Amino acid sequence: MIPRVPLTFLKEVPVTEHARASQRTTKRPRRVAPVIPDVLETVARSPFLHKLGSTLAHPPVPRKPSWRGWIHAGFTPIAFVMVLVAMILAPTVELRVACAVFGVTGLLLFGVSGIYHRSYWSPRVTAVLRRLDHTNIALLIAGTYTPAAIALMPDPTILLSIIWGSAIGLVAFRLVWMNAPRWLYTPLYVVMGCIAVAYLPQFWPVQPVATIMLAVGGLAYIAGAVTYALKWPILAPRTFGFHEVFHTWTVVGFICHYIAIMFAMLG
Q1: I need a labelling partner for 119 at 20 to 30 A (CA). Which of 63, 79, 88, 149 fits?
Q2: Interior CA angle at 131 toward 130 and 132, to 5°?
Q3: From the annotation, which residues make up the binding site?
Q4: What are phi and psi of 260, to 5 degrees?
């Protein structure tokens, strides 16, 4: 038989005070926090990045010249008085109504243009005002023809049918294709306005002054169309750009045609 050996050597060895003290003073290694997430969070909260993101989401709008829109906005009440005088002095009801058509289309053009160009609108409002601004050009051309043709022609039905049909077609074209290139739609306005050239020999015997002023006003509008298409000249980039020159030409053209209508009715 195998003798039994006492297992006293397996008993727990008493821990001395020195060992306990060394266990208490021994520090566990600290867990190092990850550095990269902290850096990324700091960068993400950076004001520079916030400003950059805002700029990319909403690009800055180019600054308009200081005169942008003021020419048409300032001329709107003047045009109202001018048309009111024409309606009062019109010798017949038919001409009074024709002058009202001329006045409404003129006030729409100058009023909407002033509102559109003076302020910085949201993209949705800008799209609406831009459509109105461009379609009003065709309406004013037809509105100008109306009293002039009635006053200078014994039967203006054919001419006015052509003009108003062209205006409706041009309005529809601009509403459907608002982003058409300038070189395409600008000549269409010019062609529509130049239809009267074929009738100038018929106007001349009736009222020479009115005929001359119709031609001068048409040339002013053509000069404005060329300025708009070429985006030239830019007289002062911060105050008076090419668009202000274009608006000036339209005011000159309107005044010339107003004089022509007054001579056609009263001369």
Answers
A1: 79
A2: 90
A3: 117, 243, 247
A4: -60, -45
Three-state SS letters, the chain? CCCCCCCHHHCCCCCCHHHHHHHHHCCCCCCCCCHHHHHHHHHHCCHHHHHHHHHHHCCCCCCCCCCCCHHHHHHHHHHHHHHHHHHHHCCCHHHHHHHHHHHHHHHHHHHHHHHHHHCCCCHHHHHHHHHHHHHHHHHHHHHHHHHHHHHHCCCCHHHHHHHHHHHHHHHHHHHHCCCCCHHHHHHHHHHHHHHHHHHHHHHCCCCHHHHHHHHHHHHHHHHHHHHHHHCCCCCECCCECHHHHHHHHHHHHHHHHHHHHHHHHHC
- The whole-model pTM stands at 0.79
Taking CA atoms, 136 is separated from 119, 159, 189, 227, in Å, by 19, 20, 11, 18
Task: Enumerate the known binding-site residues for Zn(2+).
Answer: 117, 243, 247
Measuring CA to CA, which residue among 79, 69, 142 is closest to residue 112? 69
Residue whose token pair is 């266990």: 23
Per-residue pLDDT of the chain (267 residues; tens, 9 = 90+): 555 555 554 455 555 555 555 555 555 556 555 555 555 566 556 665 555 555 445 556 688 999 999 999 999 999 999 999 999 999 999 999 999 999 999 999 999 999 999 999 999 999 999 999 999 999 999 999 999 999 999 999 999 999 999 999 999 999 999 999 999 999 999 999 999 999 999 999 999 999 999 999 999 999 999 999 999 999 999 999 999 999 999 999 999 999 999 999 998
Nearest-angstrom CA–CA distance, 160 and 248: 27
